[in-house]
Amino acid sequence: MKKKTLFRRSLLATLVCLTLSAHAGESNNLVLESQTMDRSADPCTDFFKYSNGKWLAENPVPADRSRYTAYDEVSERNLLALKKIAEEAAQAGADASLATHLVGAYYRSGMDEARIEADGAKPLADALKRIDAIDNKAQLLPVIASLHQAGVGSLFNFFVDQDAKKTTRYIPQLAQGGLGLPDRDYYLKTDAKTLDIQKKYRAYVEHIFSLLGDAPAAAKKNAEMVFAMETKLAKASLTKVELRDPQASYHLSDLNGLAKIDGKSPWSSYFDGINLPQPGEFNLAHPKFFAAAGRMLNETPLANWKTYLRWHLANARAEDLSSDFVNAHFDFYGRTLAGTKELKPRWKRVLINIDANVGEAMGQLYVAKFFGPQAKAGVLEMVDNIKSAMSDSIGKLEWMSDGTKQQAYKKLDTLMVKIGYPDKWRDYSGLQLDPASYATNNMRAAEFEFKRNLAKLGKPIDRSEWGMTPSTVNAYYNPTMNEMVFPAGILQPPLYHVNADAAANYGNTGATIGHELTHAFDDEGRQFDAEGNLKSWWSKDDEKKFLVRVKAIENQFDEYKPIDNLHINGKLTAGENIADLGGMKIALEALKKSQQTKPQAKEIDGLTLEQRFFIANAQSFRGTMRDEQLRLQLLTNPHAPEKYRVIAPIANMPEFSQAFQCSDNRSPLRAEAKRVNIW
Fold first, then answer.
1. What are the helix (H) ranges across 300-372?
2. 494: cis peptide before it, omega within 30°?
3. Residues of the chain above pLDDT 90, percent
4. What is the 3-state secondary structure (H, E, C) of 580-646?
5. What's residue 373's pLDDT?
6. pTM (2 d.p.)
7. Torsion angle of alpha carbons 658, 663, 667, 669, nearest 10°?
8. Is residue 351 within 8 Å of residue 104, measured between CB atoms?
9. Integer-rounded Cα radius of gyration of the chain
10. Burial of 252 from C-beta contacts in 10 A (0-12 / 13-18 / 19+)
11. Residue 16 confidence (pLDDT) above 90
12. Cβ–Cβ under 8 Å, residues 106 and 308
């Protein structure tokens, strides 16, 4: 499930993982693969190669991926596990559970390739007819409402989430959206590579219109029209960096307030269309955007809007349709944008989609086979040690006053931790699948989720809800809930093993826990208090000192240029970089705490406890990436490329140079004046 929220992170690249040795089941065995290391490299001058050199040389990016990392290794294994689960569910009898029936029916519809090919664009027919039937602008917003309910994001985004400044209630959220390219800057930049992507994007849009039946000249004209409309929306959109400021995306309003921004568009008809005639207060996240959208609604010809909506419908559902749509979508978003050579096989695409749409049904079946109480207990023990280490770290901060420290302790003490899977499974009994149409099932699942999300309004906050599915190989921190969440998918060997060497477990899973915990105190998370409210709890002087340290880490990452003279955006990646550094420092201290009650071998395979910790962390970020994907990540992703998530933190940690006895002329440490030390 992809949850639409302004403040919640889906930290896909924050995962730390490593590979088990052949005897990882034995107590205290080393959880490092020596064969993946290149011990001929100097750990002090090229630690990424030292930890991962042989793996990097032997693991080129697979044809159906744009990148291949430790995360992807685990993801591939999880997909094989889910494939077996889904195939068994598809053959289950009448006495099987609701979750089994749902997963099985969904999988059968997705694997019925012959029917999908025969249907072509037929599943879009009803929605296309509704768009075609629009005969005045008063009908535009109600049709957009119907598209939103079917999972088609057009013009803007709508969802329900906590009020960031009063987190005891849910309110509607309206945010910028309506683009087909990954970010506003793809429409506005004029360098050669961006202009080439724009050209290929317009060709893709033209191709989709031709598949919908438009004549060649009309398809080309329509593509140019869509691009022009999206460019106007892009110009009114906040940048990725601006979106990292939670205050910039919070503007409490209501229908009267929206009318002051756009007094001509019948916005109440949108809310009528989603069955919310009295929306009350809502967060109009980006007023500038909605002012521009309002002008466009009134000034752009109706025919253009109908063309725009046809495009967004077809693009949103292209991957669910026949192969001509699927291949056109992949050719642009896969090959052009990310450099991927081949389309994933159908079974993988279907499983990824089922997990996104009914992931807690799939999760029930997954958890029953792949997650036990021993793993959960071990992770909770690590969490306790890491929270204790964070508490110690706060107490030692020389730059933070006692008053602010007390508020930090309060936030740490109230932080909630979720591990493995929800205590209460989502009820999918109201979702009726169509055995004859995979695309229809995806639209029905989207509508089910839209209604479930909308139904939160007026109800108490559900603190048991999860924003990730149990099989997800990932983790997140949610500031409005003040919680960190670790699904069962990330707590599998080789990411975590109950009998593994503690140094390796703390170097990967422990650093992940520390990473998510640090997000509560990074440049975004620190703006939310212990109750999850967007409310300052800092003294002005402490805040200034903190921001000086944030600026230092921004400057550090601005210096790195991974490709084509493109540098990492220090402001865009600041939160993740703070969390990487803080997570490692806290996890290392927690490892030392753990040795007081469960001491590990001081040396294994010629490596000390601290050395094993750092190597495990570096192996968790091993990865290779296509050039196209690297450029895409640098422009749009709040995470730095994997190599820099290894070499940047240790450049600020004297503990690393001490562990590997790096002499001054070989030490990766930055000059003391440039060294970052936040948490």
1. 302-317, 323-330, 337-338, 346-370
2. yes
3. 90
4. HHHHHHHHHHHHHHHCCCCCCCCEECCEEHHHHHHHHHHHHCCEEECHHHHHHHHHHCCCCCHHHHH
5. 86
6. 0.92
7. 60
8. no
9. 25
10. middle
11. no
12. no
